[in-house]
From TrEMBL:
GO cellular component term of the entry, any: cytoplasm
Protein name per the record: FAD-binding oxidoreductase
Source lineage: Bacteria, Bacillati, Bacillota, Clostridia, Lachnospirales
Keywords: Membrane, Oxidoreductase, Transmembrane, Transmembrane helix
InterPro entries noted in UniProt: FAD-dep_OxRdtase, FAD/NAD-bd_sf
One Gene Ontology molecular-function label: oxidoreductase activity
Length: 380
């Protein structure tokens, strides 16, 4: 392993891979990506339901999601030379009770005020758009420009294109600490004792980012949450929309292949393997709860056979949105973490803007609402 680089990226997920690609595309020649596990995209990047969603987002995060949908996703398959399976046929966020509809209406109003094309639809319209939904669904929010994509091929696409441009990736490369040199974060200390050095370090390691940033005095109030995903056998073509629920019971879509991919918060976490490096299975109790929730909204899937299930860890912040940019107290360090389980859809825009940040360029949109210092302002 070479010990120096212009940029070191910690985390080989989609944000790390996308940032590496856009940096290399911009002409940065010497980039290292460090991934603690044995495979690229091992964490949330490959363990999600593929949502490319704008609706229902916090207003601080919404501009990034809109930017990703408008400027990146439509041409991303051509850009990366892989089929991302990007489909833009809308997102139906369903409700079964009046309380659900009030919650959805608030989210919809907030997003509409930010310029997003999203609206509330009644029982008749929701069933006209998707006749396969349960009669218990009495309304929904609908965003026609939302959609879904394949997390595996998209992450792999960024990885392959970054490799082609000379980015060096190292797996089984666990970072233990960051170190400062003359007040600037420049060094990365590895588990095997090796020390790497770069002009800029991008920390995009999911929940592991918290422990790593602690070594240079930073703290983001963050916790890890288990997310469960499942894939069914191929089913007859039913609908192209992304589905979600007011209470986040589950989310998912039908792939081009015909199988359904769904995700849900795992629930009884005490039943899960606590080793965050190896956890990748769904416990029967957790999986059963997710299946009952799905069946309650799409009754025809009652007898669908599950061919694969897995779990992953989400890096969740106390205020529900990610942390992006350069912390003022740690020159040389850039943060991109805390995506709360919905970072896949924004990843192309985030990766591009992390490259802009590292190159000291003005980012496509203002990222100041997501800066690290907001947590200190809450306390102060």
């Amino acid at each position: 392993m070479k010990k120096t680089a212009d940029v070191i990226i910690i985390g080989g997920g989609i944000v790390g891979c996308a940032s590496a690609y856009y940096l290399a595309k911009a002409g940065v020649k010497d980039i290292i990506v460090l991934e603690a596990s044995r495979s690229i995209g091992h964490g949330g990047s490959s363990r999600n339901g593929g949502g490319v969603r704008q609706s229902g987002r916090d207003v601080r995060e919404l501009p990034i999601a809109m930017c990703a949908v408008q400027k990146f996703w439509p041409s991303l398959s051509d850009e990366l030379g892989v089929d991302t399976e990007y489909t833009r046929q809308g997102n139906i966020r369903m409700g079964k009770t009046e309380a659900h509809l009030r919650k959805l209406d608030t989210l919809t109003t907030n997003c509409r005020n930010m310029g997003l094309d999203v609206r509330m639809i009644d029982r008749k319209e929701v069933h006209a758009i998707n006749p396969y939904l349960s009669d218990q669904v009495i309304g929904a929010s609908f965003c026609p420009t939302d959609g879904h994509a394949n997390p595996l091929t998209t992450t792999l696409g960024y990885y392959i294109r970054a490799l082609e441009k000379g980015v060096r990736f190292y797996t089984d490369a666990r970072v233990m600490a960051l170190e400062k040199v003359r007040g600037q974060v420049r060094k990365v200390r590895m588990e095997d004792g090796a020390v790497l050095e770069a002009d800029t370090i991008l920390l995009a390691a999911g929940y592991a980012s918290r422990k790593i940033m602690n070594t240079v005095g930073l703290e983001v109030p963050m916790y890890d949450e288990i997310d469960c995903c499942l894939v069914t056998e191929m089913e007859p073509k039913m609908f192209p929309q992304m589905l979600g629920c007011a209470d986040a019971d589950f989310y998912g879509h039908q792939t081009r292949h015909g199988s359904f991919v769904f995700g849900a918060v795992a629930g009884p976490e005490m039943l899960m393997d606590e080793d965050t490096d190896t956890v990748n299975f769904a416990h029967a109790a957790t999986l059963g709860a997710s299946c009952r929730a799905i069946e309650g909204y799409v009754p025809l899937l009652k007898n669908a056979k599950i061919v694969r299930s897995w779990t992953g860890w989400c890096d969740c912040t106390s205020d529900g949105v990610c942390v992006l940019g350069r912390p003022e107290e740690t020159p040389g360090l850039v943060l991109a973490c805390g995506f709360n389980g919905h970072g896949f859809g924004t990843a192309p825009a985030v990766g591009y803007m992390m490259a802009q940040t590292i190159l000291d360029e003005q980012t496509l949109i203002d990222l100041s609402p997501l800066r690290y210092e907001r947590f200190q302002e809450m306390i102060g």
